[in-house]
Structure formats: structure tokens, C-alpha cells
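Propose amino acids for all 64 sites.
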């Protein structure tokens, strides 16, 4: 029997004993959903090379 750890409460549980996978209970699943909705979790976004940095002024060609 393989036991896994709940990502919310840390409890070890048998995955076949719950319908709330990967959580140990419906309560932990709802806590996790609340964290996502409350923006406590974020997904990092890599800045694309073609995006301009809004903090930098635009570059203008220099006259020689």
C-alpha cells in the first residue's frame, strides 16, 4: 500500500481511500481552491524577448 502526503495539511493517506485526490479530504481540496481564488498561489510568467519593458524609455536613433 502506497501512502502519499497531502499538499495542504501534510497528512499521509492512502490514495484509494479518498475521492479528493491529490488531497486527503474534501476539506483540504476546498482550502487549496480558496488559496487559488484568493491569489495566494501564482504561476510565474516568463517575459518574452519581444515584449518591451515599460520602465525603460524608448530608444531613439542618434544623429551623427
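Proposal:
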Amino acid at each position: 500500500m502506497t501512502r502519499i502526503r497531502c499538499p495542504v495539511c501534510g497528512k499521509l493517506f492512502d490514495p484509494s481511500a479518498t475521492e479528493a485526490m491529490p488531497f486527503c479530504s474534501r476539506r483540504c481540496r476546498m482550502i487549496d481552491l480558496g488559496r487559488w481564488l484568493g491569489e495566494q498561489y501564482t504561476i510565474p510568467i516568463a517575459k518574452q524577448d519581444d515584449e518591451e519593458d515599460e520602465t525603460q524609455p524608448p530608444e531613439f536613433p542618434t544623429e551623427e
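The radius of gyration is 23 Å. The longest helix spans residues 26-37.
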